[in-house]
TrEMBL record:
Annotated NCBIfam families: ZapE
GO terms, biological process: cell division
Record-level GO cellular component terms: cytoplasm
Region of interest: Disordered: 216-238
Keywords (A to Z) from UniProt: ATP-binding, Cell cycle, Cell division, Nucleotide-binding
Protein name: Cell division protein ZapE
Keyword ATP-binding attributed: yes
UniProt-recorded Gene Ontology molecular function terms: ATP binding; ATP hydrolysis activity
SUPFAM superfamilies: P-loop containing nucleoside triphosphate hydrolases (SSF52540)
Keyword Transit peptide: no
Gene3D superfamilies: P-loop containing nucleotide triphosphate hydrolases
Amino acid sequence: MPAAALTDRWPEIGADELITALVPPPRFDAVRFSTYVPNPEEPSQAEAVEACSAFAHEVADGGRKRRSGWRSLFGGGATAGPEQPGLYLDGGFGVGKTHLLASIWHEVPAPKSYGTFVELTNLVGVLGFAEAVRRLSEHRLLAIDEFELDDPGDTMLVTRLLRELTDAGVNVAATSNTLPDRLGEGRFAAEDFLREIQSLAARFGVVRVDGPDYRHRGLPDAPDPVSDAELTASAERRPDSTLDDFAPLCEHLSRLHPSRYGRLLDGVSVMHLRDVRTAPDQTVALRLVALADRLYDRAIPVVTSGVRLSELFDEDMVHGGYRKKYLRAVSRLTALARDAAETPASAS
């Protein structure tokens, strides 16, 4: 039976649903501090578990206390100051920052919200700034994954948003691969916005999480792309899978707001993508990053034909201002391709 195509789907999502959907993705439904396994060669990981657990308990108790063991963003090795409403997990790819962030969220009683940085900016775009502040200020915790500032507009928007939310008593936990005082570096003239960035950074204490990418620790590289015939056969034999050509899917993504990408993947067991090519430009590449994040959130395996996943973004992209986004996407897609290779195509 021919597989369904993502390009035939036109998902809709309402404003109320955007708020109720602000929860950890299915991949992180069951994670807790107790299920995080620190790398014994990286002591910062065990320290991060302790610091995050302490933060979660303080938020759950309704207080903002001095969090010992944190370092402030300014002033050398001093600990973070009292009444600081934010915790910031800094580290490389695949060290378990999202696991820890989701664990914080699970530990804190409702009302609370959890979303990626992109989902947060999408929410403001759909609801409007004042309505987003009104709704989110009712929560005791806002967890933000993959925090990045890609342009001056986002800098001003998020700084103002977090200032108003933290002033309203909302605690914020965030993850990123970039320290808050260096957000935006390499993507726009960050020095022009230094005051705004420092204002944002001053609201966070930093917890460092070091280590290698667990998704590839001791594992082989992504499997080779399959032939088009193998791709079609796999899609036809895997229930609830989809099969799309790369270029038409990229075009389809351009017609959907990124807030709909998650809904686009509802019910998909495996995504098959034919004739994958290097992204033709940065706009397409960033949409693919957003799609890769939603695929990873939902643990949807990926099978491809065409170029290797490591060639999805060209050298200029990988060494440009969005380098960390592209490397994260390749890391996640590689893990999903390996998942597909480990599952027989005849699986039901």
